[in-house]
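Bump. Still looking for Gliding motility protein GldM structure tokens.
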Amino acid sequence: MALPKDPRQKMINIMYLVLTAMLALNVSAEILNAFNIVNDSIITSNASITSKNAITYDQFTKQMSNDPGKVGPLKEKADQVKAISSEMFVYIDTLKATIIREAGGLTEDGEIKSKDNLDAPTRVMENQKKGAELEKKLTELRAKLLSFVDSKVAADFEKSLPLRIEVGKSHGGHGPKNATWTSYHFNMVPTVAAVTILSKFQNDVKNSESSIVDYLFKQIGANEFKFDKIKPFVSLNSKNLMEGQELVAQVAVGAYSSTVNPEIVVNGSAVTATDGLGSYKMNVSGLGEKTLSGTVTLKRPNGETETFPFNEPYTVGASTTSISADKMNVLYIGLQNPISISAAGVPAEQVAASINNGTITKTGAGKFSVTVTKPGTATIGVVANGKSMAGKEFRIKYIPDPVLKVGMSKGPFMKAAEFKVQGGLRADLEDFLFEGVRYEVVSYRIGIDAKGKDYAEGEANSAYFPNSVMPVIRSLRAGDIVYFDNIRVKGPDGRVRDMSNVNFKIN
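Sorry for the wait, here they are.
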């Protein structure tokens, strides 16, 4: 939970503070070049932290095969940390690209043309309100990251998390006393300095991401118990059964080695144990409360034996209802959601269903299709053999947003040769449980900042690139940047959505 101790990282932090303080002086070419050096070092550091984080995420995946029950919830949180940190990193990249473009773009060598331009950062971050937007996003990201740690250590993380959003003293002590966060960082700052500051925030995001995922990974074994007592435990396949159904009981002892098998007796019958686990089966009969009784006998290292009795209650009762979503416990607006419904002891043909917030259609024996139109919840009721059974509540959600791509690339980088052969912008729904769900790109605006050429832009009313920019696309070269904004897509639910801007840097 401490700040990074890597000597390279510490040197970057010191250089950043020194160079920021020198902004109050006349900005010489040497200082501008020094900012370039710091920025390059930060970018290298970010790549190093990204590689380190990738190793940690890979370890989560490997641990899932050992104990998915314990690791699963922690891995889900780690995946969320990865997603929101990556989203912020890419967003800051777009701000850097915008400032560089406003300052005249890049040279043939990929250097900023006007490193000392003071207007571009002020115009983008203050006049266009991007600074306030960044401040808000960073504040929200910090709060979200801190939400992943336990309340017992939250105070420590509050102090040590690298990502901090605060206004310090003005450069040289001569600035306005009530400077905003944006003006403190970006007002009349040279373009190269603004880009370096943004790289520094990316570094804070990466270090904070690393801090949180490291904490989550440590939790995998943090709450394991150390046992010093032995106690038998019994696991039944169900405590509520119907007459004629089979009861399955697994009997073992806690904190006992799998290399030594205990002697197990259940309802007067001896049970053979394998790897420390005994399995007992019987057909239940007679309605009402029942008890499974027995003993587990262990031999101590000194040769003495100790017997542990157990009693496990279960119920033999009437028919119960089972409702399960074929995809998940969620119904999606605009889709035909398949549902399976069964009632123990009742033929599937005699099972009917209803829904209070949508429509449900029977498609086969025990199979139904549900259609919903508005978010919220819906309860599915069941009638089996003429009798009303217990229902179940489902969440109703919109279909998730798609991922914007050109070809198979999500950006922010793409080869010139690959970009030139594409026909337009795609909206793909990734990792969605329903197959065949498609999004349609309705419209967008494309802008191309090509080196040595006038800025070109066009409006598209479909997924295809507008003809007005096709000549520029065919002549794209490394270092050019393609911008997409005002993007609107339409999903299978008929809802038109506004999407975030995406950029592609040609390499």
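Residues 29-64 form the longest helix (36 residues).

Edit: fixed formatting.
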